[in-house]
Amino acid sequence: MVDANQRWDVPQAISWMTELSEFKPLWIEEPTSPDDILGHAAISKALKPYGIGVATGEHCHNRVMFKQFLQSGAMQFCQIDSCRLGGINEILVVLLLAAKLKIPVCPHAGGVGLCEYVQHLMMFDYICITGTKEHRIIEYVDHLHEHFKYPVVMKGSHYMPPTMPGYSAEMHEESLKAYEYPIGSKWQEYFASGIFTDPTKTPVIWS
Predict the structure, then answer these.
(1) 60-83: string of b/e by CB count within 10 Å (b at 16+)?
(2) What sign does the dihedral 8-91-112-55 (CA atoms) show?
(3) CA–CA separation, 160 vs 154, rounded Å?
């Protein structure tokens, strides 16, 4: 897998991935601007002979963008982001669209709490929509879970089914207080160390 993080324009993405094709990457993630649907379609078409798919979608904010990405052949791996899409109902529509067009959903889960969110969505996709785990991959990061009351449980590189009701996103009260901006204790540490400037002590300069 390769992640360009929106860095390239379309010709650059095609050129770089053609050079890297000898290593047989599964996909190129976010090769160009996340809003450029036609650009992604061009990249997908150019890389198809090399067996390289395009993974994108973590910056898509509604079902309409996903519909266009999916129908145009611009993505081979659908990367929903559970915080950028407009709630569970919007996400379920995208899951159904992807299933209809036989595009696997591989959620983005790199941010705070995203792993907790997406475990539910992918288990729903497996149990209620597609019935398959083929080509399904869920990102995972192993930090910041200590701030959640019901963090994800991993065994053998697999997400374990949650045992508590809800979306698993409830945070510990002490974490919320510690990171409340700008009065939380963690922010006070940052201000004292000089990493950040305390906005309550910075004079306002009007131009």
Answers:
(1) beebebbbebbeeebbbbbbbbbe
(2) negative
(3) 6
Helix (H) or strand (E) holding 45: helix 37-47
Residue pLDDT tens, the chain, 207 long? 999 999 999 999 999 999 999 999 999 999 999 999 999 999 999 999 999 999 999 999 999 999 999 999 999 999 999 999 988 999 999 999 999 999 999 999 978 899 999 999 999 999 999 999 999 999 999 989 999 999 999 999 999 999 999 999 999 999 999 999 999 999 999 999 999 999 988 776 776
Residue position matching structure tokens 């995203």: 114
The model's pTM: 0.90
Bridge-partner residues for 55, per DSSP? Answer: 29, 77
Please name every residue paired with 155 in a beta bridge, in sequence order, or none if there are none: 158
Between CA 26 and CA 86, with CA 160 as vertex, the angle to 5 degrees is 70
